[in-house]
Amino acid sequence: MVQQSIDVVRLNLGCGSDVRPGWTNVDKFPADQSVVQADFPVLPFNNDAADEVLLSHVLEHFGFKDGETLCREIQRVLKPGGMAYIEVPDIAWCAAQFLGAPEPNMYTDVTNEYHTNHRWGLYSMSLWGDQHNDGLYHKWGYTAHRLCYLLQHVGFSKVDVNYGFSHGVQVLCANAYK
Ligand SMILES: C[S@@+](CC[C@H](N)C(=O)[O-])C[C@H]1O[C@@H](n2cnc3c(N)ncnc32)[C@H](O)[C@@H]1O
């Protein structure tokens, strides 16, 4: 009997340097030649094309309208039953850390300063992005409730949001099923 190979399609959207073997890695600024170049929020994939989508630390790089479009696009390209894993900084935690951290007693250069000694390091970058290129500005933020309601609003049938820690900050980890 001939075994039919069933290809699993996994999309790593906004992969940055996290280029994963076995995935279709996509970014506006490709890290290498294997990465598909695309400018979101519109996705260059057919309806019902993907089994799994990864969107890690990308959604906050879009304003609220384009962010909603991107989530709608992810729902569109997933197969029925497919899952999106979406991770974003927890904006409430980031804002609290920023407000709770001390002010330095002098002007400091933020570039490449990912420390947590005072406000103008990692905590400021977690709110506004590290701004190393046009794709690395944060344009919106999400709380657990807001992310959950957004994903339900664009049509996901089941959404779970949990807290985690990654990229130096508390994050929201959403599993959203089509
Ligand atoms: C903070 S990095 C996240 C990289 C990786 N996913 C991770 O978790 O470490 C955000 C990525 O989103 C990409 N990006 C930002 N705006 C984009 C756009 N309009 N279209 C496609 N990719 C974009 C950036 O180029 C960057 O690689």
Describe the structure.
This protein is α/β, with parallel strands linked by helices. It has a domain at 10-89 and 135-177: Vaccinia Virus protein VP39 (Rossmann fold, 3-Layer(aba) Sandwich), CATH 3.40.50. It is 23% helix and 26% strand. It has a seven-stranded mixed beta sheet with strand order 3-2-1-4-5-7-6. Strand 4, helix 1 (64-77) and strand 5 form a beta-alpha-beta unit. Helix 2 runs antiparallel to helix 3 (122-128). It is globular, with a radius of gyration of 18 Å. The model has no long low-confidence stretch (mean pLDDT 95). Bound molecules: S-adenosylmethionine. The site of S-adenosylmethionine has 15 residues, from loops.
| Apparent shape | globular
- Bound ligands: S-adenosylmethionine
Any idea of the CATH topology of the domain at 10-89 and 135-177? Rossmann fold
Series of secondary-structure elements, N-terminal to C-terminal: EEEEHEHHHEE
Helix content: 10-25%
Question: Structural class from helices and strands?
Answer: alpha/beta
Q: Return the CATH class of the domain at 10-89 and 135-177.
A: Alpha Beta
Poorly predicted segments: none
Report the CATH superfamily of the domain at 10-89 and 135-177: Vaccinia Virus protein VP39
Q: How many helices in DSSP terms?
A: 4
Mean pLDDT: 95
Q: State the end-to-end distance.
A: 33 Å
Biggest beta sheet attributes: 7 strands, mixed
* Strand order within the widest beta sheet: 3-2-1-4-5-7-6
CATH-level-2 architecture of the domain at 10-89 and 135-177:
3-Layer(aba) Sandwich
Q: Please state roughly what percent of the residues sit in beta strands, choosing from under 5%, 5-15%, 15-25%, 25-35%, 35-45% or over 45%.
A: 25-35%
Q: What's the total number of strands?
A: 7
Evaluate the radius of gyration.
18 Å
